[in-house]
Amino acid sequence: MVTTVAARPGFLRRDDLERLIALLQEGGRTVVGPTVRDGAIVYDEIREVADLPAGWTDDQAPGRYRISQTGSDRLFDYTVGPTSWKRFTFPPRVPLLTAGRSTAGNAAFDSARPDPPRLAFLGVRACEIAGLLVQDRVLSGGPFVDEDYRARREAAVVVAVQCTCSGKTCFCASMGTGPGVSGGHDLVLTEIDGGFVVDSGSPLGAQLFSRLPITAATPEQLASAVGGVAEARTQQTSGVALDGIRDRLMDQLDSPRWAEVADRCLSCANCTMVCPTCFCTSVTLASDLDGRSTDLDRQWDSCFTGNFAKVAGGNFRSRRQDRYRQWLTHKFATWFDQFGSAGCVGCGRCITWCPVGIDVREELAVIAPPYGENAQAAVVAGSPGVYVTATVRSVTPETADTSTLQLEPTDSGLLAARPGQFVMVEQPGFPPLPISISRVADGALWLTIRAAGPATTAVIALRPGTQLGLRGPLGRGWPVERAPGRDVVVVAGGIGLAPVRPLIDALLRDRSRFGSLLLAYGARTPADRLYTGELDRWRAAGLEVQEIVDRAGEEWLGSVGVVTNLLDQREWRSREGIAFICGPERMMRATVSTLRERGIPRRRIFLSMERHMECGIGLCGHCQMGPYFICKDGPVFAVSEISDLMREGI
Amino acid sequence: MTIDAGRRPRVGVVKLASCDGCQLTLLDLEDQLLPITERFELVEFPEATSRRSEGPYDVLLVEGAISTPEQAEEIVHLRARAGLLVTIGACATAGGIQALRNWADEPTWRASVYPNPDDISSLATATPVSEHVHVDAELRGCPIAPDQLLELLTALRVGRRPQLPDEAVCLECKRAGNVCVLVAGNAPCLGPLTHTGCGALCPAYLRGCYACFGPREQPNVDSLHRWIATDHSDEEADRLFAGFTAWAPPFQAPAGRALPIADAHAKEPDGA
């Protein structure tokens, strides 16, 4: 007899799913898949299609799970429930051995032999395959292998189902694990009207495929399947910003957020129990009354329990915040070092099944926000021909040659500027000027400008009510989001205090989130100091202000010297410190070397660089420095990014 | 504990203010009971024998709360005669259901229950044994779990530390494959705050845990209370704690807001 095998992918009618189940059951194999029990869609034995959750859907949110009937006949219109497949590949309790001792004192160890049930997993989602692959690397990818796990994995057939809908706690798309299935399966189904688009992913899958009544899938059916998965992807509106997550998180081991989340965290371990990748276990003992024979089992445990990190001398993680930090940093940072991937696959179970709805996505966004995202605001006017008009509200002298303009732009988008960003200022008849923003307040951009040439002299001579043009906000500003929990050192020289003032405003607005705050400010003479009227207000708000001048007048009672003198005498938890510097390049170089001697690493010292800027958007080439355009890639850089290039300077 | 290899350890079971249910758990060990009596000398066990002992005990299992002046004296006396003193059950470890009276006016309650209240000598509070004497180990629960009792006796024989984890009920609940009743909307549940040992019995029957094993290590009462109160009410959340282990220190604040529950009842005339 000649069998014709349909081209892949093919189409399987819904009614013929029964045939697939029967095929999987051949040779006594048990099929496990989604079924409704106790108000949830759990994974349990599936004998026939009728056991699957036809017409059921789920609604998930942090700490909340509900199922309901939709009236449709679809079989997979929901996402993942409380069960993860590790229940079958890495069960909650597995016998390890029996240890015996005879009356004569002889010991005997009788190992349990893996005897895995033959299972077929039906309805494995993309994130869940990713979870299985993560556990493969952990439990059987190293020199020591969990034999029971390996035997169970090898004995299991994986029939995947691609998601055509997402729940509110799903974030596989951002983790790069779904919703499309890209490997690790024997067969993969995508549910469409009337049936499934089917493809195989292994020799075993191809064999199953050839034995099913599959017809060639029509272009419409294929498009419907692709569209369903795309729809699931679009439905995911929040996720984890994965870029640099390891370093971002490891940089925040002292974040105050750990204590804040511990105020909500119950350390009840539910997140780890439902997690498809969590693999921690403990050994339990059950002895007979005489201790002659003891059964040792391996049982799911969790880094959230009190006993987990206990030794004879005490508990290494006695506080909830220590346990939460251990868990989150393992999942999203140290897992990369140990196993080459994140320990999270974005299934969202830890969010849904947290009894108090703690959302890892939210915690990560607060603890370790993406670098730069907070340092940049959307550009309202970018290209060199486009300006937003702004009206001068006031011009306030700061020193003999320096004044602050308050400008009201016609487009309020400019007011979203982040600390450390700049604007291009254009007065008709003069060349455009790149000017750092020295504050955003009261519906105005504040620019502090020194009369250094004709254009700057003209701009601070403008009268209130006159207009000029602005482009921006431009550039990458200060990474304020890396400072919470740290001792912050701000070092400014001369007019360099202007670009750091919005940073100081931001630090003081959220004062309690930071450790000590120090401003070391150096100026040429006492008369050159900016914002002298504000220093006391800053001090009262929790910023320690130290000043030094190069040349003192008769009335100056403070320190004389260079700004690094102010740092030499300081005590701070330098290993936990972060620094922001703005001033002449020579002064910044000296400051960097002082701070590094004091133990602040290069990656946590940030500089605002100055170069000739014409366009402000990385097109004119003037401000090039190594691989960077200072205007577009900076002006703020970590020393680790640019210090090797700092061989120029005024 | 050092026990003579040549003789069986002397084990006593005594009761204070309690219902005897925890002692019955020992009898419930059934097929283990004879092997236990072969290895331990049960010198006192009121549910099984009327024989009494003056001690000393190698191990003394104490059931019940301290509810009367006599019990407050007796426990000091017992402590002095016990090598290891192990409290068993919610009454002995947390004061039990009778500790709800700790928030009420005791003479009023006594008068509402007994025809001749003056004949009753009772303390104003019912308190756990550990508020009176040093306790070496605790078996929690109302009643205690048979497998934990067996583990305790086995560990005593073998000479190792008994495995009595102080983690949340949730771990055992999840290992059992139960659907979380709190998250799936079936019931408010104190499992995340509650000491394990029951095998997650109530959630297995779609009921919320009411903490009869008392608080676990590091119970974050405020957080779970806030969460439950959002879906229900502050009053309902408070009431959850006013149960068998209300007097356990972490539960006292919310329980105290819900109590006294039966003030109105207590003021009813006798025999109504």
Q: How many helices of chain A?
A: 20
Report the portion of residues of chain A in β strands: 25-35%
In the predicted model, the low-confidence regions of chain A spanning at least 5 consecutive residues are none
Overall outline of chain B: globular
CATH topology of the largest domain in chain B: Rossmann fold
The pLDDT mean of chain B sits at: 92
Number of helices, counting only DSSP H or I runs of 4 residues or more of chain B: 12
Secondary-structure class of chain B: alpha/beta
Tell me the CATH architecture of the largest domain in chain B.
Answer: 3-Layer(aba) Sandwich
**Beta-strand residue percentage of chain B:** 5-15%
How would you classify the helix and strand content of chain A by structural class? alpha+beta
- Largest beta-sheet characterization of chain B: 5 strands, parallel
Tell me, what's the shape of chain A?
elongated
Low-confidence stretches of chain B: 264-272
Helix coverage percent of chain A:
25-40%
- The H-and-E topology of chain B, N to C, reads as EHHEEHEHHEHHHHHHH
Distance between the termini of chain B: 53 Å
Q: What is the CA-based Rg of chain B, rounded?
A: 20 Å
Describe the structure.
The complex is a heterodimer of chains A (650) and B (272). Chain A contains 20 helices and 31 strands. Chain A is elongated and about 95 Å long. Chain B has 2 domains: 10-158, Rossmann fold, CATH 3.40.50; 169-258, no CATH class. Chain B is 36% helix and 10% strand. Chain B has helices at 21-27, 33-39, 69-81, 89-94, 106-113, 146-158, 169-175, 201-204, 221-231, 234-241, 249-258, 263-266; strands at 10-15, 41-44, 57-63, 82-88, 137-139. A 5-stranded parallel sheet of chain B has the order 2-1-3-4-5. Chain B is globular, with a radius of gyration of 20 Å. The N and C termini of chain B lie far apart (53 Å). The chains are: A alpha+beta (650), B alpha/beta (272). The interface between A and B is large, with 47 and 46 residues.
